[in-house]
Amino acid sequence: MNPDHKTNSNKIKNVRLGRTTDRPYWMMMLSLIIRAAHQIGAAVCLGAFLLGADLPWPYLILAGTSGCLLMLTEALRHRQLLREAAGVVTLIKTGIIGMALHGWIPAVPALLFVFALASFYSHAPKTIRHRIWF
User: Fold this and answer.
1) Which residues span the domain enclosing 118?
2) Last residue of a domain, one of 77, 105, 122
3) Phi and psi dihedrals of 21, rounded to 5?
4) Which residue of 7, 71, 109, 132 is surrounded by the most CB atoms within 10 Å?
């Protein structure tokens, strides 16, 4: 066994994570449904930007509303969400999307970056996703 492996494992265990509470099963299932709706809305909006089509406002509203509901369901469980990487990155993504929608930055590269950032943080281990940044 590699002696460094144990050292690296201990470093991961010592990462400061945000406080969590239990969440009922029904809330977890609701969160999954909301997450699916969010991905549909966001994917259709990204497709419209990539294809140069008009912005599909109903899907943008779906993505925005479901995104707010996701933040709410996550905040109910993760009491320090806005101090964790997941919460801070979500606020950064929201800012980038707002700048792209208002034409302050190029929309296609900005939205592709937001999707890449979202994919990374949604699939990252909890020691990265829920690490306290400040």
Assistant:
1) 80-134
2) 77
3) -125, 165
4) 71
Q: Is residue 109 domain-resident?
A: yes
Rounded to two decimals, the pTM is 0.76
Choose among 41, 63, 64, 35: nearest CA to 123. Answer: 35
Domain membership flag for residue 6: no
Q: Which tens digits make up the pLDDT trace of 92-126?
A: 999 999 999 899 999 899 999 999 998 888 787 87
φ/ψ (deg, to 5) at 47 = -60, -40
d(CA 124, CA 121): 5
Q: Are 131 and 16 in contact (CB under 8 A)?
A: yes
Phi, psi (5° rounding) for residue 120?
A: -60, -50
pLDDT tens-place string over residues 13-69: 666 766 666 778 888 899 899 999 999 999 999 899 889 898 899 999 999 999 999
Number of domains making up the chain: 2
Note whether 66 and 104 are same-domain residues. no
CA distance 38 to 118: 12
- The verdict on residue 13 lying in a domain is no
Beta partners for residue 33, in sequence order: none
